[in-house]
Design brief:
The chain is mainly alpha-helical. The chain has a domain of 102 residues. Helix 1 packs across helix 5. 58% of the residues lie in helices and 0% in strands. 19% of the residues are buried. The chain contains 5 helices and no strands. The termini are close together.
Length: 150
């Protein structure tokens, strides 16, 4: 019988890899989408184009949605313990190279993979709760469970 859900044992290594893929792709994508200048938005109830679409408003909504998602990611990173928040923020939000992250948090080359795996796993565990807190309609479960083949 295969266990899934609450009683299943999470696969820490696979979950960390899954979280790494998620953060690597989403942080870059969301920062690009949020990069719209919000300094002088042009909002109105009347459409700006003859097709009935106000592209400035659409752009603002996309940008704000991306900013909210980035805030949720950063919030989740702060829910991790120890040096994990600093490691995750440096690597995925500040986009530093791994050697720079290791140097910033003063850990050895050999110890870094374990700290990184632990930080990513903690992120994945906290992500579901964050998605509920931020009331995301589309939710992504980053936890991967071990398969019990008996």
């Amino acid at each position: 019988m295969e266990q899934t859900g609450f009683w299943a044992e999470p696969d820490i290594e696979a979950t960390a890899k899954n979280a790494d893929i998620f953060l690597s792709k989403q942080c870059k994508r969301l920062s690009l989408r949020a990069g719209v200048s919000l300094s002088s938005p042009q909002l109105s109830c009347a459409p700006m184009h003859t097709n009935g679409v106000n592209h400035t408003e659409e752009s603002m909504v996309t940008s704000l949605t991306a900013l909210t998602a980035l805030q949720a990611i950063k919030y989740t990173m702060f829910q991790t313990r120890g040096i994990s928040p600093q490691l995750l923020i440096s690597k995925y939000l500040d986009l530093k190279k791994e050697w720079q992250v290791r140097q910033d948090i003063h850990i050895s080359h050999n110890a870094y993979p374990k700290y990184r795996e632990r930080a990513l796993y903690e992120f994945a565990e906290s992500w579901n709760t964050t998605q509920e807190k931020f009331d995301f309609e589309e939710r992504v479960n980053l936890i991967i469970y071990k398969r019990n083949l008996r």
